[in-house]
Write a structure and sequence with these properties.
The chain has ten helices and ten strands. By secondary structure, the protein is an alpha/beta fold.
Length: 269
């Protein structure tokens, strides 16, 4: 396995935890819709890799009420936040484990379902990631991977500074070995791993005032170090100010990036 890539978000910051919790809420309907369509027993053992401050944990906990949900992350502060979210949801079937995907200590063949959201875009090493996920699945288990495609990420009225910031974010992800448009190649990546994926896509329209409109600013704060390498400190500050001015406009609406969901059963051995 490769060494863990160098893209680290500011996970110990309250704003980053809030960003991840908002993200989980925004995409939870898509998660629940997919889970409803999967053949998964109520007593299944399931894993959310890189669960962050919530991830799929609450949706999974309710989907397998007689089973076990395991959430992993490399950051203890995020796991603590995830634990509070599960406690608030009244779930007692969720276990949280500090674990590095690239050096995982979880036993092989343990899970009926493995889910990973936005891990390829942040960490890269796609083939290695998929091999790690398949190692953790039981024969016939389900792998679910979600990644972004930024082509639909737009604002109305047009917001040039925000659009430029999104482009710079993509550049920073790429410089760290990731790909903010990993969703575009996701089905092909699963096919290259010997799987037969099914695919769904979701892009959400956001009304004025919706908190997720500010996601470019929140990502920029989480990746300030990387963006400063690309733009310089003064350039980043100026671009962020102008993007914030645009997004604070009361009439600003938008469309999210496209969430690409791909899932497949691993072969029975």
């Amino acid at each position: 396995m490769p060494a863990a890539p160098a893209l680290h978000l500011v996970a110990d910051a309250r704003s980053e935890r809030e960003r991840l919790q908002l993200q989980a809420r925004v995409w939870e309907p898509a998660a629940r819709a997919l889970l409803d369509d999967l053949e998964l027993p109520d007593d299944a053992r399931v894993l959310d890799v890189g669960c962050g401050a919530r991830g799929w944990l609450t949706a999974l906990g309710e989907r397998v009420p007689n089973g076990t949900v395991v959430g992993t992350d490399v950051d203890g502060a995020l796991l603590a936040a995830a634990g509070r979210a599960c406690e608030d949801a009244g779930l007692d079937n969720v276990a949280l484990v500090r674990d590095d995907l690239f050096r995982s200590t979880l036993p092989p063949g343990m899970f009926d379902l493995v889910h990973a959201r936005f891990q390829l875009c942040a960490l890269g090493h796609g083939a290695d990631q998929l091999a790690a996920y398949q190692r953790l699945l039981k024969p016939g288990g389900v792998l679910v991977v979600e990644e972004p495609d930024t082509r639909s990420w737009t604002y109305e009225p047009y917001a040039p500074a925000t659009t430029h910031l999104i482009g710079r974010l993509a550049q920073a992800y790429g410089a760290a070995g990731g790909n903010l448009d990993a969703g575009r190649r996701l089905p092909a990546l699963l096919r290259d791993a010997g799987l037969a994926p099914r695919v769904r896509t979701h892009a959400l329209g956001l009304e004025a005032g919706h908190g997720y409109l500010r996601m470019p600013l929140q990502l920029a704060d989480a990746m300030a170090g990387r963006l400063a390498d690309v733009l310089g400190g003064d350039g980043l500050a100026a671009l962020r100010r102008e993007a914030a001015r645009e997004l604070d406009a009361p009439e600003r609406r938008g469309t999210t990036f496209t969430l690409v969901q791909a899932w497949a059963r691993v072969p029975s051995r």
